[in-house]
Amino acid sequence: MTILTDKTVVITGASSGIGEETARMLATAGARVMLVARREDRLMALAAEIGNGAVHLALDLAQKDSAQVMLDTAIAQMGKVDILINNAGILRTSHVDTFDLAELEPMIAVNYSAAVCASLLFARHMKANGSGQIVNLSSIGASLTAAGTGIYGGLKAALDRFTDVLRIELAGSGVRVGIIAPGTTTTEIFEDMKAQGQPGWDEYIPPMLPGDIARAILFMCEQTGNANAARMHIYATSETF
Question: Which domains does the chain have, with CATH numbers?
Answer without folding.
Answer: 8-234 (3.40.50.720)
